[in-house]
Amino acid sequence: MVEVNISRDKKGRIVQFGGSGHSGYAKEGKDIVCAAVSTLLQTALVGLKDYLGLKVAVRRKKGWLQVETGEINGSKQKVADAILETMVLGLRYIERDYTGYLEVKESELSF
């Protein structure tokens, strides 16, 4: 199962996200669930880094990605929120449609 973790600050804004694992839906390289999850996570990362020009902390290995957004100020916050919340919506649809292959966990950080 793929596990995606979404961490929010006290205002409800996403400050960290990441995923790991293999869904087991199909063999590696043929797995549409893994491909869809990876695409959503990577697209959100590209949106933050390349579209908004944010400096985000990224850690990755094969089958594992962790992103920390850091502090986002001004008008970029609204766009970042749209990018990240759209990612979550997409992940929730996959979780619903492919039950047992993806688990999305959300938590609130204490800072």
Concise overview:
The protein is of the alpha+beta class. Helices cover 39% and strands 28% of the residues.
Chain-wise SSE layout:
Layout: E1 2-8, E2 14-20, H1 32-51, E3 57-61, E4 64-68, H2 75-97, E5 102-108
Parallel strand pairs: 1-5
Antiparallel strand pairs: 1-2, 2-4, 3-4
Describe the structure in your own words.
The chain has helices at 32-51, 75-97; strands at residues 2-8, 14-20, 57-61, 64-68, 102-108. The chain has 111 residues and is an alpha+beta fold. A five-stranded mixed sheet has the order 3-4-2-1-5, with helices on one face. A hairpin with a 2-residue loop joins strand 3 (57-61) and strand 4 (64-68). Helix 1 runs antiparallel to helix 2 (75-97). The protein starts with a strand and ends with a strand. The model has no long low-confidence stretch (mean pLDDT 95).
Summary keywords:
alpha+beta; 2 helices; 111 residues; five-stranded mixed β-sheet; Alpha-Beta Plaits
**Quick one: CATH class?**
Alpha Beta
Label the structural class.
Answer: alpha+beta
The Rg value, from CA coordinates, equals 14 Å
Total helices: the number is: 2
Strand order across the biggest sheet? 3-4-2-1-5
What proportion of the residues is helical, as a percent range? Answer: 25-40%
Name of the CATH architecture: 2-Layer Sandwich
**CATH homology superfamily name:** Cysteine protease Prp
Distance between the termini: 30 Å
